[in-house]
Amino acid sequence: MLAFLGAIEAEIVSIRGRLRDAVELTVGSTVVTVGIYTTPSGTRRPVAVATCGVGKVNAALAVAALAQAGVTEAVFTGVAGGVAPGLRVGDLVVATDLVQHDVDLTALGRPRGELLGEPFAWPADPELAARVLDAARAAATGSTGRVLQGRIASGDQFVADRDHGREIHTVFGALCTEMEGAAFAQACTGYRIAFAVVRAISDTADGDAPSDFPSFLTRASEVGQALADALVDRQP
Q1: Nearest-angstrom CA–CA distance, 37 and 49
Q2: Facing residues of 174 across strands?
Q3: Do residues 173 and 75 touch, judged by C-beta distance below 8 A?
Q4: Global model pTM greater than 0.70
């Protein structure tokens, strides 16, 4: 079963609105809504939808709930701050892999971002990421912007400083930064859930980020629904 996960309700509400015959399952602090997702073209598939809350721990806890609900594929969707030069508000980024930019064990001889006993980055499932990339291109409009593929960096920080954003891009080679994706990726890997992450750029991680972020949420929700429609239509 496919699942869609978002950090906050505004990012996922439009996707949940497509479910029919929905049932709610509460696992720990996570409410997983399972129902029949019906696309405008008439495709019907069982889908789970959940909101996890902001931050890496919340994302990992939500993955545990999805696993208990029988999810085999999961897509994290929502917004992110662009840190790569030239990235614009409205662009969509599909993750190739994800890193934790706020991890620092350099005193123990590890590169920044790498935990002991863990990889530096968690690669998205190639087959699911390819489907998400195809769906993102189908969902993209002139107002949405470009669809790109690359690394996403995660940390328990809202990046609103241009120099900090540039450093994340320089050190990690990331296109954008957010607060859940790498933990979601790590947890999905542990639970053997195929995963992909797609983010709409809501701001450019600079001084305007606090005002740009909330103003873009409604638009991001509409983009997320269009992407979910296209992805469900492409389910095997």
Answers
A1: 10
A2: 151
A3: no
A4: yes
Backbone angles phi, psi at 5, to 5 degrees: -125, 140
Catalytic residues: 11, 203
Residues ≥6 apart with Cβ < 8 Å to 236: none
Which regions in the chain score pLDDT beneath 70?
Answer: 141-144, 205-217
What is the C-alpha to C-alpha distance for residues 157 and 92, in angstroms, rounded to an integer? Answer: 21
Distance, in Å, from the CA atom of 35 to the CA atom of 22, rounded to the nearest integer, reads 4
State how beta strands 147-154 and 92-100 pair: parallel
How far apart CA 133 and CA 131 sit, in angstroms, is 5
Q: How many domains are contained in the chain? A: 1
Q: What is the CATH number of the domain that holds 72?
A: 3.40.50.1580
End-to-end CA distance of the chain: 11
Looking up tokens 């390819």 gives 130
Return the pLDDT at 205: 62
Range of the domain at 75: 2-233
